[in-house]
Design brief:
By secondary structure, this protein is mostly helical. It has six helices and no strands. The chain has one domain.
Length: about 130
């Protein structure tokens, strides 16, 4: 029983992170909130992404939708699978450009891997030949 509670808590915590960070990014972008500033090549890259006017809103909307899919029991497996490339990207981003935020990136990736492992039965038919 405690494993079921842990799995549900992990899923809702990950969904809350995705919905919260996605909504926060959209709020900051569209309603004039403050955006984080970075120095060096990471800052130049972020400025380039923001200058496109579509990549950052796409990422934020994707995170928001993926978090909602994970929170909804019927679509949790799809949402968890969709979040995996984002989790890997965040981990690589903090590893190579934002080393002080490494712990957060690692936590996001580990949470996603644990959720993938917990829902492995749902993916078995996709992988089976």
């Amino acid at each position: 029983m405690s494993q079921t509670i842990f799995k549900s808590a992990l899923r809702y915590l990950f969904a809350l992170f995705l919905v919260g960070s996605g909504a926060s990014a959209l709020y900051g972008l569209y309603l004039g909130g403050e955006m984080a500033t970075l120095a060096g090549p990471a800052g130049q890259f972020l400025i380039a992404v923001l200058d496109t006017k579509w990549i950052f809103p796409w990422i934020a909307t994707f995170k928001l939708c993926t978090g909602l899919l994970i929170a909804w029991p019927r679509t949790k497996s799809l949402g968890i699978l969709m979040a995996f490339p984002y989790s890997v990207n965040i981990f690589l981003w903090v590893t190579f450009t934002q080393t002080p935020d490494f712990a957060m990136g690692a936590i996001v990736l580990v949470m996603n891997i644990l959720l993938l492992r917990n829902n492995w039965a749902a993916y078995r038919s996709i992988i089976a030949s």
